[in-house]
Amino acid sequence: MSDTFFTGSPHWAWWIILYFFIGGIAGGAFFLSALLHLFGRPVDRPLVRLGYYSAFVGVILSGFLLTIDLDRPLRFWHMLIESNTGRPMFKAWVPMSVGSWGLLLFGLFAFLAALTALSEDRPDVKWLQSAPVRALRGRGAAATIAVLGSLFGFFLAGYTGVLLAVTNRPIWADSTLLGLLFLVSAASTGAATLILLAAWRRAGHPASLDWLGWFDRRVLVLELLVLIAFLITLGSVARAFLNWWGVLLLVGVVGIGIVVPLLMERGHKVRAPRHLVRSAALVLLGGFLLRVVVLLSSNQIHVLGSGVTGR
Amino acid sequence: MPEPMGFYTDTTVCIGCKACEVACKEWNQLPATGGGRHEMSGDSYDNTQRLDGIHWRHVKFVEQFSEDRNDGRWLMMSDVCKHCVRAPCLEVCPTGAIIRTEFDTVVIQSDACNGCRLCIAACPFGVIDINPASDTAQKCTLCYDRLQVGMEPACSQACPTDSIRFGTIRELKQQAETRVRQLHQLGERRARLYGADQKFLGGLNSFYLLVDEPETYGLPRSPRMPTRNLLPSALLSTAGAVVIALLGLVGLRKRLMDDRAEPREDADV
């Protein structure tokens, strides 16, 4: 029996699941938008702006979800400032500590990127055309925001899995692949979110959506491979999935979230956006279920020691 | 600086009276139940069931019976925070609320804790939980307030069989080793110490004398620091980020090449 089975559950449930999901989307969407911003074409601009907006909304929601999950929400600032000395609180070896700063800094870049996008979208609003905002839209400043924001976006997408691995809980601490798995899943759910938003707002150029679809299909294959590797590295602990969580993992995450979208898009050249939208919706569902399964399956395991046993 | 202090718990003389649990609750003013909710185990005489935010001491009843119920034994063990020399909870606490005291014990400062619950997931022994009265993570303080004025912790003082002994770690280890030798001479060859040496977590300042495998008592065999996974996890994630970024760039390059080979109607100039 793994030593992790004797630990207690931190009761991280729906708020944290939602945070892992939305934070991942925010990080993934920002990175994809930044890539199109830096290396794309003018026709990609509407999608770039959409990605920057969604990253900013995502990071605001992330901060809110993290705060309300605390048992003492008004003490959220203790993550950043040591409450009894007033000094900055930072532990480089603790993902939750680094993550608090990472989320803050990602929020800054997501805000700046969303501001430049809004300035582009609303030329009629005077303050959005002011000199400081125009300066942010300059080539050098915009590229810096895109690159640094992408780095923090990648961090936000992956650190959540690393945070789980740096505990002593079953499943989470029994593999070192959770960070990678969440990162790859964030890339696929980020792309899926952009596809859905573009369809809803009728904003994405077909060429941009083509690229997103192409990217998402390959990332889904990568995600499947990482998921298989994750289960293999769990070893005997993988038996913890011989229950309804395992069924949800197989049917919901692998089947509905990865295999079906891949099959749906096989042979379709993008110009059939309906297929792209449907498969994107399934990818999002699969990404959400992945976090549900990983969080909640572990929460249920705790060996007490007390009680009647056979001899 | 005072010498490191701690507990040595001899499980062979524990009678399961739970006086330690009561004394702990009395001294630390812990509620008897979580919000008035009485929870019965249903399969054991032990109804406290576990250590948590309002149970800083817990006497485990390991009830082992043969299938026909003719043969059986009860192992009793008064469980508590292990005050690890290298404490995982202290290592990961992101607010700095968990500190090491001058007695080499580990204490959670309730006024600094914001209830993120990371320490709960990091503790290899399932010791910590949220106290619903304070909404902060709590556990045994090894009666830090009593130690500061030269008093013995409430639980060990209340223990009627001296199963829980308090003292300097150096003295406690001598007592424990003598007791193990005595038990071996009496024929109890399974007697062994758990956490008295530095095999894991730098040693435990609350260590045990057991007469069965650690798992039988609900203890991990080789508890480890949570940060063991940090470097490999971070490196694998970073490698993944590079692969994903390259994949995105390859896709954009492919799009460019495709457009050059066969310009699209909708392609811009």
Task: State which percent range the strand residues of chain A make up.
Answer: under 5%
The biggest sheet of chain B amounts to:
4 strands, mixed
Order of helices and strands of chain B: EHEEHEEHEEHHEHEEH
> Beta-sheet strand percentage of chain B?
15-25%
What are the secondary-structure elements of chain A, in order, as H or E?
HHHHHHHHHE
Gap between N and C termini of chain B: 76 Å
In angstroms, what is the radius of gyration of chain B? 25 Å
Low-confidence stretches of chain B: none
Model regions low in confidence, pLDDT < 50 over at least 5 residues of chain A: none
**What is the total number of structural domains of chain A?**
1
Question: Nearest-angstrom radius of gyration of chain A?
Answer: 21 Å
CATH top level of chain A is: Mainly Alpha
Describe the protein's architecture and organization.
The complex is a heterodimer of chains A (311) and B (269). Chain A has a single domain, classed as Formate dehydrogenase/DMSO reductase fold (Up-down Bundle), CATH 1.20.1630. Helix content of chain A is 69%, strand content 1%. Chain A contains nine helices and one strand, in the order αααααααααβ. Chain A has helices at 14-39, 45-69, 95-121, 131-137, 139-165, 178-201, 206-234, 244-265, 273-299, and one strand at 307-310. Chain A starts with 13 loop residues before the first helix and ends with a strand. By secondary structure, chain B is an alpha+beta fold. Chain B contains seven helices and ten strands. In chain B, strand 2 (57-65) and strand 3 (72-80) form a beta hairpin. Chain B folds into two domains: 5-223, Alpha-Beta Plaits (2-Layer Sandwich), CATH 3.30.70.20; 228-261. Chain B has helices spanning 19-28, 88-92, 118-122, 144-148, 154-158, 169-185, 230-261; strands at residues 5-10, 57-65, 72-80, 98-100, 106-108, 129-131, 136-138, 164-168, 192-194, 206-210. At the A-B interface, helix 1, helix 3, helix 5, helix 6 and helix 7 of A face strand 2, strand 3, helix 2, helix 3 and helix 7 of B. Strand 1 of chain A pairs parallel with strand 2 of chain B.
